[in-house]
Amino acid sequence: MKDELQPAVPRGHEISDDPGRIDVERVHHWLSTDAYWAIGRAREKQESAIRGSLNFGVYEVGSGEQVAYARVVTDGATFAWLCDVYVAPSARGNGLGTALVAAVREHLRPSGLRRLLLATHDAHGVYAKLGFEPLAKPEQYMALLFD
């Protein structure tokens, strides 16, 4: 990630978009056991999602331990979907989630995307302070669910 796009990250942590640094086992465990939107997600499904996405991790400086994750599904030109944003319970409350989402936003900014969407059940305040707003015309959006 370019240094000039790197937002302030809480001391002792760094953010990277290097897919080789993602601790796939840890991310799968977090999401499949503790994230309401991904409970029970199969490991193979998570690996496929990681391969098809732009991935970001937050790591402890020194140990390199991953403490947060986010991924973006995008065409890199017009649209992006921010998903699977997760901060380990032991690392919450230190601004890591905000720094991670800010890093994603700044990483995507130069691409000229028209919109970056996300869905959240309970973190509206985190995203609002980074510029996210409710849909202006939610009646224009639809979803097709494959359950």
Detailed description of the structure:
The protein has one domain (3-140): Gcn5-related N-acetyltransferase (GNAT) (Aminopeptidase, 3-Layer(aba) Sandwich), CATH 3.40.630. Helix content is 26%, strand content 22%. The protein has helices at 24-34, 43-51, 96-108, 124-128, and strands at residues 13-16, 54-60, 66-74, 79-87, 115-117.
What descriptors fit this protein?
147 residues; alpha+beta; Aminopeptidase; five-stranded mixed β-sheet; 4 helices; 22% strand; disordered N terminus
Topology:
Layout: E1 13-16, H1 24-34, H2 43-51, E2 54-60, E3 66-74, E4 79-87, H3 96-108, E5 115-117, H4 124-128
Parallel strand pairs: 4-5
Antiparallel strand pairs: 1-2, 2-3, 3-4
| CA-CA gap between termini | 36 Å
Element pattern in H and E: EHHEEEHEH
Biggest β-sheet: strands ordered side by side in the sheet: 1-2-3-4-5
The dominant shape is globular
CATH architecture: 3-Layer(aba) Sandwich
Q: What oligomerization state is this entry in?
A: single chain
Biggest β-sheet: count, sense, barrel? 5 strands, mixed
Contiguous helical run count:
4
CATH topology: Aminopeptidase
Name of the CATH homologous superfamily: Gcn5-related N-acetyltransferase (GNAT)
